[in-house]
Amino acid sequence: MVLVVVMGVSGSGKTTVGSRLAAKLGWKLYDADDYHSPENKKKMAEGIPLNDEDRIPWLCALHDILRREESSRQDAVLACSALKKMYRCILVNGASALESNKPEKPGENTALKILFAHLDGPIELIARRLEKRRGHFMPPELLKSQFDTLEPPRAPENFITVSVEKSLSEIVLEIEKAIFSE
Q1: How far is the C-alpha of 151 from the C-alpha of 46, rounded, in Å?
Q2: Which partner from 71, 85, 106, 117 sits 20 to 30 angstroms from 166, CA to CA?
């Protein structure tokens, strides 16, 4: 049973890569954008970056989806920005990531095993991609705030970094190799 989060800034190709990967492997795909509250979508459409307070309930809901897939032994791909280490901790541990001083009962809230596939690339390339995108609530002007917020994954997090300068098929293949080498 495998859970993969395809992560990165807006315009890095999360949904495109996640869709292709899920289709190739016959896995379920979730797009985190579909789970934003109407308030969050409105804020972003108005060019207002989301803060932690906006994102935490959304991330907890995404964790619950991944937990459900894990419980039913389903492989799944989630396309999600997951920009900060804290956000990735919430995806792995749920709301308990926010309550670090609370003692856990044995067997309660075990961490999900997630592979984070970080789509990384230069701001100029990603900005060009965003400018071509139509009908999305995330305006290109917010890209800089996403890069400012980004905390690239580092050990001991379970991750790979893939360059968005590669072709779609090369990116998917690189993630696939990481999945099956675990």
Answers
A1: 24
A2: 85
Tens of pLDDT along 101-142?
Answer: 554 544 556 899 999 999 999 999 998 888 776 655 456 567
Quick check: 109 and 93 in contact, CB under 8 A?
yes
User: Could you read off the pLDDT of 34-79 as tens digits, one per residue?
Assistant: 999 999 989 988 888 889 999 999 999 999 999 999 999 999 999 9
Helix (H) or strand (E) holding 49: none
Residue in the block written with tokens 């859970």 = 3
The pairing of beta strand 159-163 with beta strand 114-120: parallel
